[in-house]
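pasting for ref
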Amino acid sequence: MEPQIIATIKEKLREYTYHPIPFEEFQEIKWSRESRDRFQMIRETLPSDLTGMRVLDVGCNLGYFCFEFAKRGAIVKGIDQSERELNIAKTIATLYNVPVQFECLTVTPQTIQRLIANHNQYNIILFLSVYHHIVRKKGLAYARHILDGFSHLCQTMFFETSHFLFSNLAPTDTPDFVTTEICEHTQFTTVRLLGKSTDHFQRYLFRCDVC
C-alpha cells in the first residue's frame, strides 16, 4: 500500500465526501450519504455470483457502488461529470487494483443514443439520486428521454429519487407516481419498490426490469 497516496486522498476529501470509500484505510473519513444500506437492498435482488455482469453506474461520484460490484466480479463502468471525483476514484482503483473504468461524461439523450448505436448493453444500470437534478435543470420531459434511453441499454435499472422532487405532483403517493412515470415513459415493464432511505432526505429505491 502507498501511505503517501492514501494521505493525499484523505486530504482532498477532508472537507466533503458524499459516498464512503469501501476500503479499510478510509473508514474514518466522514461522508454525507450512507450507501451500504442501499447496496445491501440492491444485492438482495441479484444472484450471488456477479461474475461477468456488465454494470454502468451513472453519477458514480467516488465509485462506491462501482468498487462493490467490481469486487464481486462484475465488469463495471462509472460515469460522472465531476473530474475531481473521477480522478480520485481512478487513483483508488489503481491503488487497490480494482478493474473499474471511469469516464467523465454528462448524461444526455444524445450520449445515450450514441451508446445504443455503438451496441453498448448492460445487465445493470445504477441511476441513483441523479434524476431529480436533471429534472430541476432540464425539465421533466428531457429527463424522461434519458430514462427511456436507459430502458434500451439494460435489462435492469436500479433507480433512486427523492420525495421532494415530486411533492407538487404526488404529495402523498410518491412511489406510485414514480412507478407510473417509469412504466408509461420507458420500456421497463416491471417496477418494484425496494425500500426507502432517510439518511439524506427521504429517498425511494426501485428496481426496474425489461421482461
